[in-house]
Automatic annotation (TrEMBL):
PANTHER family associated with the record: SULFUR CARRIER PROTEIN YEDF-RELATED (PTHR33279:SF6)
Name of the featured protein: UPF0033 domain-containing protein
Database matches in InterPro entries: TusA-like (IPR001455), TusA-like_sf (IPR036868)
Species this chain originates from: Heyndrickxia oleronia
Recorded family membership: Belongs to the sulfur carrier protein TusA family.
SUPFAM superfamilies named in the record: SirA-like
Domain called UPF0033: residue spans: 7-31
Length: 75
């Protein structure tokens, strides 16, 4: 998987991870991938719901040492 851009949203509380993700996705072309790093546990549900609502694809998510990582493909 080739990541186009990485967004560091660590330390941000809701709704800022979503706000920053939306802004970053607006800068990508169709099919490009954004990798997001967050620490807000609410980001798991928020990003999954948001991607479904706007037509992007949540390719993968994982948690490593308290850092939530998401890979979203622009749809």
């Amino acid at each position: 998987m080739e990541v186009t851009k990485i967004l560091d949203a660590k330390g941000l509380a809701c709704p800022m991870p979503i706000v920053r993700t939306k802004k970053a996705m607006d800068e990508l072309n169709l099919g490009e991938i954004l990798e997001i790093h967050a620490t807000d546990k609410g980001a798991k549900n928020d990003l999954a719901a948001w991607t479904n609502t706007v037509g992007h694809e949540l390719i993968k998510q994982e948690e490593i040492d308290g850092i939530l990582k998401f890979w979203i493909k622009k749809g």
